[in-house]
Design brief:
Elements: H1 3-17, H2 23-38, H3 44-47, E1 49-55, E2 59-66, E3 71-75, E4 86-87, E5 93-94, H4 96-105, E6 115-119, E7 123-128, E8 137-140, H5 144-147, H6 160-184, H7 193-215, H8 223-229, H9 233-247, H10 258-261, H11 263-266, H12 288-300, H13 309-317, H14 322-328, H15 335-358, H16 366-380, E9 383-385, H17 392-415, H18 417-422, E10 439-443, H19 446-471, E11 485-488, E12 507-510, H20 522-531, H21 545-555, E13 561-567, H22 574-587, E14 590-600, E15 610-618, E16 626-629, E17 635-638, E18 667-668, E19 679-680, H23 682-691, E20 699-703, H24 705-710, E21 715-717, H25 724-728, H26 731-745, H27 750-753, E22 772-776, E23 778-779, E24 789-791, E25 796-797, E26 801-805, H28 809-816, H29 818-827, E27 829-831, E28 834-836, H30 839-843, H31 853-871, H32 878-881, H33 889-906, H34 913-916, H35 918-934
Parallel strand pairs: 3-6, 9-10, 9-12, 10-11, 12-13, 14-16, 20-25
Antiparallel strand pairs: 1-2, 2-3, 4-5, 6-7, 7-8, 13-15, 14-15, 16-17, 18-26, 19-21, 20-21, 22-24, 22-26, 23-28, 27-28
Helix pairs in contact: 1-2, 6-7, 6-12, 6-13, 7-19, 8-12, 13-17, 13-19, 15-16, 15-17, 16-17, 17-19, 28-31, 29-35, 31-33
Length: about 950
C-alpha cells in the first residue's frame, strides 16, 4: 500500500466511523477494519486478540491486545470522556488508562505492553509505557487522514532484518570478549600500556579478517580460517605475524618468491588504510583454547558478514574494562536512538527531497539532472562527531546516505543501464560518490578510534555489496581507497578547526559523555571552567555543556546545524538560567528541534539507562519550523522552543528570594552541622532516657525527606533555651555537646568553626512556632505528585526539607495539585531522575491562581479529602501511598477532585487543552509567569 493509498484508506475509515461507536457491539469491527483497511493486515483476526481474561479480585476482560507489537487497548463508547474516572465493580474510580494499568499488573512480565491505547471511537489516547507517567499522544479520528502514520506502531513489529543484525552483532561482541580475555592471559606483562594497546589492535585486526573472509573481500569464503588451520598451536603466532605483514604490503613490493614458498599466504590481497601497518604490535603465544576459539567459534560457527557495523562498533568497544567505560562517561547507542538525532537534523529533509524527485514522471527532462545533482549534494555533505566513541553516529549516517544513493543508482539502472556503463560500470565503477572521507570525529580513547575506522570500512563494504546487487556486476573493495578522519584527542581541549574547517562542514552531532557536575573528575571540572571562565554556576554544569559551547563558538555565523544527546538536567532547573541563558545571550543559539526526556538505552551487554534529551540547535533562526518530539517520536510544530523544551518563547525562570505572589514564604529547615552529635536513632533515644530521664525535655522528633516519606523514626536534641545547669546533670547530653563543639572547631570551613562557640544550638535555626507544611527537597521522579504534609511545631524539620509556616488547607491543596507539580517538573532540577525541589526557583516563581471565595472553599475541601484518604491507610508510608501503581483508589479519587478544583480556579476548565495536557498546562503557567514578571514593581 502506497502512502497515498493509505491516506485515502484512512479518510474512508474515518468517514465511515464518524458518529458510530457502541462499546460492546462495534469495538471489534472497528479495530478489525482499522488494521485491515488502513494498515494492510491481511488477517487482522489472527493479529489482534479480544476479551483476554485477567483476574483481579474478580474476572475481567481486556478489550484488545496485539501481542506482536506489544499493544493493549481499552475501548470505551462514543462520547465517553477518556480523562474521566469510571466506577469499577470494586467501587474504585479509574480512568481508562488507570484501568489498563491495573490489568497490566496481573499479566506476566513477558506480556506487558509497550503501548496502551484508550479509545472512544472518535479519539485515540496513546500512552508509551516507557514513560508510564507521561502525557498521552492524542489522535482524533477526524484527523486520521493526515495523521495515520502516528498509529503505525500498531502493526510495526520492527525490522526483522535489523533484529537479526542486532542479535548477530551482540553475539559477535561476546566472541571478541572471549578472544580478548584468552589473549590477555598470555601476555608476559598484560598490564603494560604497550601490551594493552597491542591487544586492542590485535582484536581489531582479527575482526576485520573474520569479516573479510565471510564477506568475500579476501577472495574465497573461509580463506582466513583455512590459512591458519594449516598451522598447529605453536605455529599460529608466527603465521599471524606473516599474514599481517602481507596484508600491509602491495603486491609489487612483496617477496617475488612468496608465491612459490607460500601460495596460500600470497593469495591474500593488499588492504591499505593503515590497519595492519604497525609491525611492532605484540602478539602473545597461542594456546589450544585460543586456537579453538578463533578457528571454530569465531570462524567456522559464525558469519561475520551479517553484523551491523553501527551496533557492532559499540559492542566491540565493550571489550574494554567496564570501569574504564564508566570513568569516561561513555554510553552505547541503539540505531533507533541514533535516528532520533540524525533524522530531524538532516535525514528527513534529504529523504523528502529525493522522494519528490523520484515522484516526477520519467518523461520529465529535469528528472535525471535533479537526481544527479542530488547525488552530488549527498557526496558534498560533511559530518562531524566530536565525541564519536566507536563511531556509531558516523557509521549509521554513512549507511543512511549510501542507501539514498543506492536508490538513485537503482532508479538510473532501471532507466538506462547503458548510461551507467558510460559512467564507468564494472570493477572500478565510478557511480558511487558518497564516501567515508566525508566523516570526521574526535575520540579520546585510542582503541575506540580504531574501532570507529574499522566500523566505517565494514559499512563501506556492505553498501558496496548492495550496489553490486543493483548493477549485477562485482566491484573491488580492496585495497581501501578512502579513510574517515577520526582523530584521537580530548575534544574539549582540541581546536575543532584543525580537525575539519568550518567552511566545509554541514552537521555536528553526537552523544557526548553523560556526567553530572558532582561526578566529574577535577580535570573534567577544570575543562568546563576553562570553557565557561566567567559564568557563575559553571561548576554545577553537566560535562556535555562543554560540547554545546565549543560547537556554538565553532559554527559562528556559518549555517551549520548541530544536535547532541544530553542529560535531561541541562534543560531543567538552575542550568537553564545559567548555561542556556549564556548560550542564547552570547551566541544567539536557536533550538531547531528537541526530544523531551526519555530513557536512553544502549545495545551493550551492560546497558546504561539514563534519562536524557536531544537538542538540535544552530545560529540560524527558522521561523515557525521547530519540531518538539515526545518520547514516542510524535512531534508538534512550534514557532519557538524554549530551553525548558516547551512550546513557548524563550523565558528564563530566574532565582528569586521571595515569592512572586502574595503567599506564605517558604524556607529551609534547620541545619545542625553537628557531625551527628545532636541526632538520635529510636534505640539511642530509648537508651538515653533510661540513663538520663531529665533529657526528655530536649528530645524532639526530627524529620528530613527520608523520614517524612518513609515514616522513619529519628530524633534530635533541641537545646534551644536549655538551662546549662540541667545539661550538666546529663553526662551523655553534655558529652554530645562537647562532640559538636570539637567537630565544628576542627572543620576546614571558617563558617563552621565560628559556630563552635554555640555548641548547644543548630547552626541555622528555622523552626517555626506553629504548624507548618513540609516539602521534601528530593522525591522520586516516578511520582505524579510530590507528597507534602503538615507538621506540628514540636517536630524539628531538617535542612533536607523545606517548610512553609502560616500555611493552611488552601495552600496545601494548590501545592498538591497537578498544576503545581507540572510547574515543578518543568523548572526543578533533577538528581538522577528524582525531583530536586528548589524554593527560589520552583516555589517563589510559581504563579498562584486568584480563586473566588467559593473556589477557595472547594480547594480547601478537596485538600482535606486528600488528608482523609491518607488516614485510611495508617500502615502505609507516603512513599507507598504515592507509588503510581499502588496508590489507593480513595487517594487517587481525592487527588483527581483536588486537581479539578485547582484547575477551575486557574480557568483551566473542561474543554481547554490545559485541562488534559501537561505541556499545555505549563505553557499557560509560563504565560502567567511572563505577565507577572513584566508587571511594574509596586
Amino acid at each position: 500500500m502506497t502512502a497515498a493509498q493509505q491516506q485515502q484508506a484512512a479518510k474512508n475509515f474515518a468517514a465511515y466511523w464518524k458518529g458510530k461507536g457502541y462499546e460492546k457491539g462495534e469495538s471489534q469491527p472497528f479495530w478489525l477494519s482499522l488494521l485491515r483497511d488502513v494498515y494492510g493486515v491481511e488477517h487482522p483476526e489472527q493479529f489482534i486478540q479480544f476479551e483476554e481474561q485477567v483476574h483481579l479480585d474478580h474476572t475481567s476482560f481486556i478489550d484488545g491486545t496485539i501481542p506482536a507489537t506489544h499493544v493493549l487497548i481499552e475501548q470505551k463508547g462514543l462520547g465517553k470522556d477518556l480523562n474521566k474516572p469510571i466506577k469499577q465493580s470494586d467501587g474504585a474510580l479509574l480512568t481508562p488508562f488507570e484501568q489498563a494499568k491495573r490489568y497490566i499488573l496481573e499479566l506476566p512480565v513477558s506480556q506487558h505492553p509497550r503501548w496502551v491505547v484508550t479509545c472512544n471511537f472518535s479519539t485515540f489516547y496513546v500512552y508509551d509505557m516507557e514513560r508510564p507517567r507521561g502525557e498521552p499522544e492524542i489522535i482524533e479520528l477526524a484527523n486520521l487522514e493526515k495523521e495515520y502514520y502516528r498509529l503505525q506502531f500498531l502493526v510495526d513489529a520492527g525490522n526483522e532484518h535489523l533484529k537479526r543484525e542486532m542479535e548477530v552483532s551482540i553475539a559477535a561482541g561476546e566472541i571478541v570478549g572471549l578472544l580478548y580475555d584468552a589473549f590477555y592471559k598470555q601476555y608476559a606483562n598484560s598490564e603494560s600500556e604497550h601490551s594493552l594497546k597491542s591487544l586492542n589492535k590485535l582484536c581489531v585486526r582479527l575482526v576485520f579478517c573474520l569479516y573479510a573472509e565471510d564477506a568475500g573481500i579476501f577472495g574465497h569464503h573461509g580463506m582466513f580460517h583455512d590459512y591458519l588451520a594449516a598451522f598447529d598451536t605453536r605455529g599460529m603466532r608466527k603465521a599471524l605475524v606473516e599474514l599481517f605483514r602481507v596484508l600491509d604490503t602491495k603486491p609489487q613490493d612483496r617477496d617475488p618468491y612468496l608465491q612459490d614458498d607460500n601460495p596460500e599466504l600470497a593469495a591474500f590481497p593488499y588492504v591499505n588504510g593503515g590497519l595492519f601497518s604497525d609491525e611492532n604490535i605484540e602478539i602473545p603465544p597461542f594456546t589450544d583454547e585460543i586456537r579453538n576459539l578463533l578457528l571454530n567459534k569465531a570462524s567456522e560457527d559464525f558469519n561475520w558478514a551479517e553484523i551491523s557495523p553501527t551496533i557492532f562498533g559499540a559492542v566491540f568497544e565493550s571489550t574494554l574494562n567496564p570501569e574504564t567505560r564508566r570513568s569516561g562517561g561513555m554510553h552505547y547507542t541503539s540505531i533507533e536512538n541514533i535516528h532520533k538525532v540524525i533524522d530531524p537534523l538532516f535525514l528527513d529533509a534529504l529523504k523528502a527531497e529525493l522522494n519528490e524527485i523520484l515522484a516526477r514522471p520519467r518523461s520529465d527532462s529535469w528528472r535525471t539532472r535533479l537526481l544527479t545533482a542530488f547525488q552530488t549534494k549527498l557526496s558534498q555533505l560533511t559530518f562531524f562527531d566530536p565525541a564519536c566513541g566507536s563511531g556509531n553516529f558516523l557509521t549509521e549516517t554513512y549507511l543512511s546516505l549510501r542507501r539514498l544513493e543506492n536508490m538513485i543508482i537503482a532508479d538510473q539502472t532501471k532507466e538506462s543501464l547503458g548510461q551507467i556503463v558510460m559512467r564507468g560500470l564494472g570493477a572500478d565503477f565510478a557511480g558511487i560518490k558518497v564516501s567515508i572521507s566525508q566523516f570526521y570525529g574526535i575520540e579520546i580513547n585510542d582503541f575506540a578510534v580504531t574501532v570507529a575506522k574499522t566500523a566505517l570500512w565494514i559499512a563501506e563494504s556492505q553498501m558496496m555489496k548492495e550496489t553490486e546487487t543493483i548493477i549485477s556486476i562485482p566491484l573491488n573493495f580492496l585495497p581501501l581507497k578512502t579513510n574517515a578522519y577520526i582523530m584521537e584527542g580530548n575534544a574539549l581541549r582540541t581546536d575543532w578547526e584543525t580537525i575539519v574547517p568550518k567552511s566545509k562542514l554541514n552537521y555536528i552531532m553526537g552523544n557526548p559523555p553523560f556526567l553530572g557536575g558532582m561526578y566529574m573528575s577535577e580535570i573534567q571540572k577544570g575543562e568546563i571552567h576553562s570553557i565557561f571562565p566567567d559564568v557563575t554556576g559553571a561548576g554545577e554544569f553537566d560535562y556535555v555543556t562543554g560540547w554545546y559551547c565549543k560547537a556554538t563558538e565553532y559554527i559562528s555565523s556559518k549555517n551549520i546545524h548541530c544536535a547532541f544527546v544530553s542529560t535531561n538536567s541541562i534543560c531543567q532547573g538552575s542550568q537553564v538560567i545559567t548555561f542556556w541563558k549564556y548560550l542564547i545571550e552570547h551566541y544567539h543559539v536557536h533550538i531547531d528541534f528537541a526530544y523531551t526526556p526519555f530513557v536512553w538505552n544502549s545495545e551493550a551487554k551492560s546497558q546504561a539507562k539514563v534519562h536524557c534529551v536531544i537538542v538540535g540547535f544552530s545560529r540560524t533562526m527558522s521561523s515557525n519550523n521547530c519540531r518538539l518530539f515526545s518520547s514516542a517520536g510524535n512531534y508538534k510544530q512550534c514557532a519557538q522552543i524554549s530551553p525548558y523544551l516547551t512550546d513557548s518563547p524563550v523565558v528564563f525562570v530566574e532565582s528569586r528570594s521571595t515569592p512572586i505572589c502574595n503567599v506564605p514564604k517558604m524556607r529551609f529547615g534547620s541545619m545542625p552541622r553537628d557531625g551527628g552529635g545532636f541526632i538520635l536513632t529510636a534505640e539511642e533515644k530509648t537508651a538515653l532516657l533510661q540513663s538520663e530521664p531529665l533529657a526528655a525535655q530536649w528530645i524532639r522528633p526530627y524529620v528530613g525527606a527520608t523520614e517524612f516519606l518513609n515514616s522513619k523514626e529519628r530524633y534530635c536534641l533541641w537545646l534551644v533555651g536549655a538551662d546549662p545547669g540541667e545539661i550538666n546533670k546529663c553526662p551523655t547530653v553534655k558529652k554530645r555537646v562537647e562532640f559538636v563543639r570539637d567537630f565544628r572547631a576542627s572543620s576546614k570551613a571558617a563558617a563552621t568553626r565560628k559556630f563552635a562557640s554555640t555548641p548547644t544550638l543548630f547552626c541555622q535555626i528555622a523552626q517555626p512556632d506553629s504548624t507548618y507544611i513540609i516539602v521534601p527537597e528530593t522525591s522520586s521522579g516516578k511520582r505524579r505528585y510530590i507528597p507534602l504534609g503538615f507538621m506540628d511545631k514540636d517536630t524539628i524539620a531538617s535542612n533536607l526539607v523545606f517548610l512553609i509556616p502560616n500555611a493552611g488547607l488552601y495552600e496545601f491543596g494548590v501545592l498538591m495539585s497537578n498544576v503545581h507539580n507540572s510547574w515543578m517538573r518543568l523548572v526543578a532540577g533533577r538528581l538522577k531522575s528524582d525531583y530536586r525541589y528548589a524554593k527560589d526557583i520552583v516555589y517563589n516563581n510559581f504563579v498562584w491562581c486568584t480563586p473566588s471565595p467559593e473556589q477557595k472553599r472547594r480547594i480547601e475541601q478537596t485538600a482535606q479529602g486528600i488528608l482523609d484518604a491518607r488516614k485510611l491507610y495508617p500502615k502505609s508510608t507516603l512513599a507507598n501511598l504515592y507509588d503510581d501503581v499502588l496508590m489507593p483508589p480513595e487517594l487517587r479519587k481525592a487527588h483527581q477532585a483536588n486537581d479539578r478544583a485547582v484547575m477551575d480556579a486557574y480557568g483551566f476548565t473542561k474543554g481547554t487543552a490545559a485541562r488534559t495536557s501537561e505541556s499545555a498546562c505549563v505553557a499557560e503557567l509560563m504565560k502567567l509567569y511572563q505577565q507577572k514578571v513584566s508587571e511594574p514593581e509596586k
